[in-house]
Write a structure and sequence with these properties.
71% helix; elongated; Tetracycline Repressor, domain 2; homodimer; mainly alpha; 208 residues; DNA-binding; Arc Repressor Mutant, subunit A
DNA sequence: CCATGCAGTTAACAACTGTTCTCTGGAATT
DNA sequence: AATTCCAGAGAACAGTTGTTAACTGCATGG
């Protein structure tokens, strides 16, 4: 079925990826709406016109970056949200997983946080769609949990949304403290833990 | 003490405000990092060089916009967070207050949501500082509440931060549904209410 | 082996940007 | 009434932008 990549397609894929990487780097200190196509091609070392072979516009590139940043993250939901014996232990796992992801892909996280409310509509929509998928997946996972008995569909959706937003907040908090003194980072982790724990407490007493 | 404004200073103030207003309008569909100084002066109908009489740069203007958007909001904290007989009624009041503010100043809210993680460092810092002030004020208000007995300082700070973040999330949710069908807006309000209520439940059972 | 396809190049375009310097009119100060 | 001050105008600068057209070289499929 799957043909050998072919020297031609492989080279194209490489330059495309180089454009994405260069753009992501440039976006560390500016927003997508001010990212110029020439700027990107210059960083890659390629002619400006070559850009059009891969993307219609920088907005188009932005949408591709959303896919790159969030697309591969869905499988993590199941393992993270799956029920565990100890609630606190699960929270600890989730927080450390977020911390690890932020440390491993800071530019991706920054990009999502920045462009979620950014000035480029198609990118905002792409992010919104991905986050909606996350919320659906979290909701599905919550529904399997024993403590979800008696919960209405609306309430499950509301809780899933709360979790997704809280994860983004946590990620962006960790991002801000990435190159901060050790002690401040530990405080950030502790804050994130307790906030999730408080939500967890509210969840167990929701039906009172 | 306070001299009569003076025709001169008054005129200057007017153009400065016109620049701020025009910028805010232009920022509805782009980020600050792509906002050009010429763009702003053109929208006001003034020479490009006049810009320098009021701001060093567009980043400088952005900082001024942060002050305009958030500076006058602090007094609202006391009245919103102040203890009430009924917890749910207070939540309803808070949610409607946010909804009203978003409806009255959508551009300001959009600006804050967009530039909080945006590409212009001084503006990010200005917003962070204002939000930290909000958190401090919320924390102070929480401390006066009877149900805060036995809470550690760290936990009060953590809860205050959670509230501030949740209010921003709610505001940006309302912003997205501003020109959506009536029914979707009602759903958004209901979601916001329940999320705050869940946090409230978690808060009352925190010390168990 | 030859013809086609197509990623990337080169050159040129009109339009735009931030910033400088010089100037002007009229309010503010003396 | 004479002088100073200063918000805004005007012109010019070097550098940037997105987009177009026509090209070149090389991997690919017949």
């Amino acid at each position: 079925m799957s043909h050998t990549p072919g020297v031609r397609q492989e080279q194209k894929r490489k330059t495309r990826q180089a454009l994405l990487d260069a753009a992501l780097g440039l976006l560390e200190e500016q927003s997508l709406s001010s990212l110029g196509l020439r700027e990107v091609t210059r960083a890659v070392g390629v002619a400006p016109t070559a850009f059009y072979r891969h993307f219609h516009s920088t907005a188009d590139l932005g949408v591709a970056l959303v896919e790159e940043a969030l697309g591969s993250l869905h499988p993590m939901i199941r393992t993270t949200m799956s029920p565990a014996e100890d609630d606190d232990e699960r929270i600890d796992r989730a927080v450390e997983l977020i911390a690890g992801h932020v440390a491993a892909h800071p530019a991706h996280v920054r990009f999502i946080a920045r462009e979620r409310h950014g000035g480029v509509q198609p990118v905002r929509r792409a992010i919104r769609e991905q986050l909606a998928r996350f919320a659906e997946e979290v909701k599905a996972e919550l529904a399997t949990d024993a403590s979800a008995a008696g919960w209405s569909d609306t309430d499950l959706r509301m809780l899933a949304g709360l979790y997704v937003d809280q994860m983004l907040i946590t990620a962006s908090l960790f991002l801000e403290t990435l190159d901060a003194p050790e002690e401040e980072r530990r405080r950030a982790v502790e804050t994130a833990r307790r906030q999730l724990r408080l939500i967890s407490v509210g969840r167990t007493h929701w039906l009172d």
